[in-house]
Design a protein that fits this description.
By secondary structure, the chain is of the alpha+beta class. About 30% of the residues lie in helices and about 35% in strands. It has a six-stranded mixed sheet. The relative contact order is 0.19.
């Protein structure tokens, strides 16, 4: 069973999906739901980096962005360009160094 979240704010509608069992496990382990993680994709100041070391089967990416609860999140995901879908793999609260990176990036943009 897969969960879905279509989130639209200042960005085009995104088709974001995840595995429900993986989401429950992630919530227990990291305290972040995939529904909250999906909201970080609407952060126009978010930073997306490739993550080639963690999968040979599909391109993976890491998003550092603010979720709806205004906490910095790290969201590991894949993107299927043909289908136009994002699949959340894991999500957690950003650590101190990652939050500092986000804050520095914001200062540079202002």
């Amino acid at each position: 069973m897969y969960g879905r979240c279509a989130y639209s704010r200042a960005v085009p509608k995104l088709d974001i999906r995840w595995d429900a069992a993986k989401e429950r496990s992630n919530r227990r382990k990291h305290g972040v739901s995939f529904a909250e993680a999906a909201t970080a994709f609407a952060d126009e100041s978010g930073l997306v980096l490739p993550d080639p070391d963690h999968s040979r089967d599909e391109p993976r990416f890491v998003l550092l962005g603010l979720g709806v609860a205004l906490r910095a999140l790290i969201v590991v995901h894949s993107y299927d360009e043909r289908a136009g879908t994002i699949r959340i793999i894991s999500a957690r609260k950003a650590n101190r160094l990652e939050r500092a990176l986000y804050a520095r990036k914001e200062t540079v943009r202002s």
